[in-house]
Design brief:
The protein is of the alpha+beta class. It has 4 domains: 191 residues, Reverse transcriptase/Diguanylate cyclase domain (Alpha-Beta Plaits, 2-Layer Sandwich); 57 residues, DNA polymerase, domain 1 (Orthogonal Bundle), CATH 1.10.150; 142 residues, Dna Ligase, domain 1; 60 residues, SH3 type barrels (Roll). It contains 18 helices and 17 strands. Helix 11 packs across helix 12 and helix 13 crosses helix 16. The structure holds a DNA duplex (18 and 18 nucleotides).
Amino acid sequence: MRAAPTILHLDMDAFFAAAEQASKPSLRGKPVVVGGLGPRGVVATASYEARRFGVHSAMPMGQARRLAPNAAYLVPRFAFYRAISGQVMELLGRLSPLVEPLSLDEAFVDLEAGGLADDSAGARAVGERLRAEILATTGLTGSVGLAGSKMLAKIASEEAKPDGLVLYEPGTERALLAPRSVRIIPGVGPATGDHLRRAGITTVADLVEAGEDELVRILGRSHGASLYRMALGHDDRPVVAERDAKSVSVEDTFDVDLHDRLRIRLEVERLAERCVRRLRGSGHSGRTIVLKVRRYDFSTLTRSETLRGPTDDPLVVREAAERLLELVDTTGGVRLLGVGVSGLADYTQEDLFAQAEAEAEAEAGAEAGAEAGAEAGTETDAAAGAAVPAAPEGVGPSAGRAGAAEAVEVPGTAAESAVRRWAPGHDVRHAVLGAGWVQGSGLGRVTVRFEEPGSTAPGRVRTFAVDDPELEPSDPLPLVPGGVTGAEGSAPVVRAGGQHAG
DNA sequence: TCTGGGGTCCTAGGACCC
DNA sequence: TCTGGGGTCCTAGGACCC
């Protein structure tokens, strides 16, 4: 806490959906839902128009479609959102050296460290100027919260939504929080909320009245003590610019539960390879391999194995994941598989050298029979894995393999690649008609609306054969003339946190 | 058409060591 | 051979966030 409201929290409004509306004029003012379009998809972001129908983040798509059947349903385009996020983060970087991104659409900024504001009036001016710059640069609106602590700044930005600014004067924290639900405090979710409610605690005032000892008794040492402090409005957490990643993971939910053990194993191998690609891409190696399995009944389990040294070797990670799979009973079916690596180290020659040594030792000590068996298995499966084209970003099995029968088969049919190529919302270019985006596809046809971010009226719609030679996928166009697009792929990487906008 | 994907942090028990 | 007490590492699960 500080004497002036110089901690700023920025939250872009309905980020993914707003970005789609900005890039597709025909969707402006209309309900838009961005998320997984497969049978098991969920909503990532709903536009404010869609929220009026009751659609919200994390809701199953089927439910969203029942509530808002006439909304536009689009698959997320992360590269595009990342590019816009990079522009926004760049603007934040001009305010202060201390910027802490929480996700693509959210960040804390320490204005005091930037020397641009040291009182309420100054902070408010900086906040309003920032909002104007974001609008001018990206065409999107963001909401700003200003307060003397992270917690209050975040609550303020929530209060400011959409397209607003709220400033809480230091000293008013307790009175402001007292009548609110405990759920307003970041970190209090459904489970903790229920737990507290059963103890008769529903408001922040109740938390204060209960006292620290009681909260520690109910919620445990760490959670109880920090919750008590938060309830009093005490929050000294600093804005931290650099946070090292602690783990890298990938996972897939399947349209249909997997039963076949060979298919399950094949998917684990593909996930391991994808995971290592990401691991290497982030410049890390890691020591602990984690396999995640969600069963038909949604029960989830993890199995992990810690190596003697950090690795970024695809084979090592894959074989560890395979060993872990052997420990899991998959009878009844599997709806999700995931592979992760934690215990990250910076990728350096030293690490690799140490790892090679550790592996040599391990191999020398291993039983010959087990080694031979593992190797024979991976040979075959590696060949099968290599035949499968990697899905483009944002298009998981749910989008790409809709309705695929569960069997030992190699995905990647022509129909399937058409589904991926012409995913709803993706940009295309027609040799004669110019820039547009996919409204929908199926039965060998793809429907395109021809319009650009700058268009003032909705564009015309035309339908083509999916293999029309004049039509091809293209990169997003800038939302604002002269702005960046998703094509660069060089936007600053948002490190920790999720990828979804609320 | 019931429940995504990528993260973080915390707890708790057992192994192991001193 | 009658029992202590820490510290650290590993594993598994759960809550939470966007």
